[in-house]
Fold this protein.
Amino acid sequence: MKSVHSNIMSAIPDNLPEELFELVYQRGKVRIERILSKGHMTPVGQWYDQAWDEWILLVQGQAKIMYQQNEHAIHLLAGDYLLIPAHTLHRVEWTPPDSVTIWLAIHLE
């Protein structure tokens, strides 16, 4: 296997008109992404329904994740992590518009 080295805090664009998803690593049924948000949220009425578990770590910033089932918002701060089980309808309710939020997402298909 080839060695991979980088820094999750580097190469952050000044302008983020859309949320940025970057593949960090993929092997078999595991995919790791870096996600950059700056005031981005899931469009109103839209819910993610993934066929796999997703483990997220908020590396920098803040975010609110909303679950449809009980309309419960989880406020995440830097260092917080969350496991979103497969087929749990969820959405990003808020990220701060004045700073970049950095997520590390591990998709377990």
